[in-house]
Structure formats: structure tokens, C-alpha cells
């Protein structure tokens, strides 16, 4: 009975992944030379140069449809998820401590934050 529990614990420690081939050897040599691995960038550039039909899907042609979920808004001060937006400055903030900081900022700093976010409108 004690042997059963030790065998079970040994089998739990040895994780076998389904996606890994146990016979795979990454140090293979071909004609005495070590096999060179290609990066994803090299594979993509080679794939781009191949003569593909127009409707073929590959890494560089996959496009996702627009999301139905609203975009997340992050605080301009801390980078945390922002629940609030100051109506005077249009800056996002996460809590009351940041709100007091937002209200005390000079206008050129506020303009800088809005420009970084990409929502600065000098007209309105």
C-alpha cells in the first residue's frame, strides 16, 4: 500500500506535456553541422515572399474584427484602471488622491498628458 502512494507521487512530479515530442532532439547535426534555428521574423519574411493565392491566411494577413467591448481607460497619473474622468481637464483618474493631483496640475502639464494620450484638441 505504501508503494502505491510513492508511485503516485513520482508520476505527479513527472509532467508529460502533450505538445512536446519526447523523442525530439534540439542538438541534431546534419552532415556534421549543427542545425540552425530560424526566428519568427525570418519565417515571416520568407512566408511573405512566397507566391500565395489571394485568399490565403497567413501571419501577416490576419486581421481581427473590431471589438464589441468598450476600450479600457487608464489613469493618466498612475496608469491604473480609471473609473473617473475630470470634466474640467478631461484627464482620467483612479481615486480621490489622484483627483486632487489632477486639479492642482498647471495647464501645460494637462496639455502634455492629453497629447500623450492622443486626445488633445487645441480648439475645444
How would you sum up this structure in a few lines?
The protein is mainly alpha-helical. The protein has helices at residues 2-13, 40-49, 96-104, 107-117, and strands spanning 29-30, 33-34, 84-85, 92-93. The chain has a domain at 2-49.
Explain the overall architecture:
With 124 residues, this protein is mainly alpha-helical. The chain has a domain at 2-49. 34% of the residues lie in helices and 6% in strands. It contains four helices and four strands. The chain has helices at residues 2-13, 40-49, 96-104, 107-117, and strands at residues 29-30, 33-34, 84-85, 92-93. A two-stranded antiparallel sheet has the order 1-2. A hairpin with a 2-residue loop joins β1 and β2 (33-34). The longest helix has 12 residues, at 2-13. The protein is elongated, with a radius of gyration of 28 Å. It starts with a helix and ends in a 7-residue tail after the last helix.
Q: Report, as a whole number of angstroms, the end-to-end distance.
A: 79 Å
What is the makeup of the main sheet? Answer: 2 strands, antiparallel
Contiguous uncertain segments of 5+ residues: none
Number of helices: 4
How much is the radius of gyration in Å?
A: 28 Å
Q: Structural class per helix/strand content?
A: mainly alpha
Amino acid at each position: 500500500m505504501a508503494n502505491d502512494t510513492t508511485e503516485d507521487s513520482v508520476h505527479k512530479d513527472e509532467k508529460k506535456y502533450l505538445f512536446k515530442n519526447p523523442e525530439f532532439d534540439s542538438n541534431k547535426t546534419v552532415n556534421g553541422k549543427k542545425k540552425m534555428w530560424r526566428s519568427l521574423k525570418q519565417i515571416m519574411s520568407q512566408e511573405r515572399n512566397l507566391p500565395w493565392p489571394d485568399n490565403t491566411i497567413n501571419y501577416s494577413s490576419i486581421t481581427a474584427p473590431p471589438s464589441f467591448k468598450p476600450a479600457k481607460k487608464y489613469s493618466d497619473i498612475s496608469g491604473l484602471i480609471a473609473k473617473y474622468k475630470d470634466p474640467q481637464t478631461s484627464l482620467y483618474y483612479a481615486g480621490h488622491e489622484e483627483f486632487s493631483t489632477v486639479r492642482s496640475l498647471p495647464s501645460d502639464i494637462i496639455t502634455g498628458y492629453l497629447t500623450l494620450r492622443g486626445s488633445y484638441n487645441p480648439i475645444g
